[in-house]
Amino acid sequence: MAAAPHKEDRSSAERKPADEWDALKDDVGHLAQEAKAQGWHFADIARAQARGYAEGRKDDVAHSVSGFARSLREATQTFDDRPNIQAITESAAAGLDQLADSIEEKTITEIVQDVEDAIRRHPLATATLSLSLGFFVARFLKSTAPAVDKTLTEGRARRPRRKTNSGSKIHA
Asked: So where are the chain's domains?
């Protein structure tokens, strides 16, 4: 007659799968934490690269704005007989120079904060500017659409056709 298993043997056998399950959960938890840490690390690297790129582009924008102010001044030199026009364009050029200096002096974070503050202070002007910009972009896209359609149509007409095994023609 076989002896019945002891209670200790049964409980240790029952504990074994539970211990393995707990160990598996711990392993998965550690892997998740490691993946999360790696994700944050990659995000930090991407953020630093984006910030570096934006800082480089910021200087390019500042130089472009400054160049536009210089061009504006040069263009109005021919208006010697119209001091009102010169005064307005000189004021605009001075404002552009001030904007260029501000762009060069501030960090990207400061510029973004300034823009957000301006949007909060002037919501009506922001909405008007957004609608106007959207209107002009839509007009631009609409005006270039026929040229794009024409280019696509011409491209299809010029594509050589090849025959398939069944003899019908298909586009290459």
From this structure: 27-106
